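User: Need the bound-state model for s-citryldethia Coenzyme A:
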Amino acid sequence: MASSTLTITDNRTGKRYELPIEHGAIRASDLSQIRVAPGEPGLVSYDPALINTATCKSKVSFIDGERGILRYRGYPIEELAEKSSFLETAYLIVKGELPTTSHFLMWQHNIKMHTLVHENIKQFIQGFRYDAHPMGILIATAGALSTFYPEAKNIMDLESRRVQTRRLIGKMPTIAAFAYRHSRGLPYIYPDNDLSYTGNFLSMMFKMTELKYRPDPVLEHALDVLFILHADHEQNCSSTTMRTVGSAHSDPYASVAGAAAALAGPRHGSANEEVVHMLHEIGSIDRIPGLIKQAKGGERRLMGFGHRVYKNYDPRAQLIKKIAYDVFEVTGKNPLIEIALELERIALQDEYFVSRRLYPNVDFYSGIIYEAMGLPVAMFPVLFAIARTAGWMAQWAEMVLDDEQKIVRPKQLYVGHDERHYVPLDQRREGGAPEVEVHGPL
Ligand code: SDX
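Assistant: Bound-state model below.
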């Protein structure tokens, strides 16, 4: 019977080592026993961007990148998108099980009891320029919330973790909507707890002088499904950031601010914003070949294409593409969809993209829908953050409770100068160090 071990021979010493294999992985720390001589440093694994390194054990999401599978707590996203709601899926992601009726009613109540923000938050947001990017406002405000809830630093207290989770899931839509209303110079709309989670968000975004905002049920449902599809995704950059900041035992608000900051990057959650800018830049189908040529020449990235894990079609992109047509029934077709579909068709026939297994990802079609719904492009990553807060909080709690986790402090491979000694100013030669001009680029 083959044993689940890896036999390594260190050819520098001729020594052999047996390393156990668990869950398809070896422990990188097992490598540290491999050394040239006693007292010498042990072997280290080198993995920039953690491309082939598992940083944790998790039960939250499962992705099979080859087969295009995504499951939350074992449930396929296709079933959740069709049968669940965002709040129910958020419960599943955070708690680990689908709620019973009584638990779901309590969960909904608990979230609704936290949709208001402290009145000072309005003044805080007022401090931003009218054209401040809403992700900047969200990052700053999420971090500021930790000053309102100092008890959040009691991260080992179950009830405190529960309350902060409810507060963040409840308040993110409010902060997002307030950021939008600030940019438009419109009065802030307070939460309407008679409405659904997404209905309330649309009300806080778009209510004007009517006594009660009535969300269009098709748009309300479409946004709810989009939130389901963005709720968690294994150890993506922002969830890894959430775990890393949280590993220092910072409070969850500071950790969410860090996670949102990671999500704001165009390689990550702001790609949905960049996709729409790219499609507008293309402008018409006949200009697609020029963009493809630029992407293949390495001059730019095809935004919304490619994924570290999915080497097949991102299953979320398939579902989002379908939602688009439900939304267009209400809003009218967004002409960008034709450009996006043709861009996808051409790219998926092109050897450059096929050989690199670059397919549309979650961000390729979502922005087209958001724009059709009247949401401003700068708000697209903010919508991503609202939904991903459920996943961030689940990943954070899992990290807090994982006995194997410590403060994140990776090693490095030092490739800088050996020891050298101080040279008095008057003895330094002009034009001395030949390296990058004037010691750039750092
Ligand atoms: C999200 O991790 C997650 O799960 C993230 C996410 C989530 O739910 O949390 O799924 C959400 O962030 C989706 C990704 C959104 N980003 C974009 O759409 C931006 C455009 N895509 C990329 O920049 C890129 O594909 C990444 C960042 C998504 C993945 O990058 P990798 O895995 O580091 O791949 P790479 O940069 O090493 O690229 C491999 C090759 C390179 O070419 P060669 O060096 O082999 O010649 O593919 C090329 C890249 O140049 N390539 C692209 C490309 N993406 C990769 N070429 C053109 N267009 C692209 N989009």
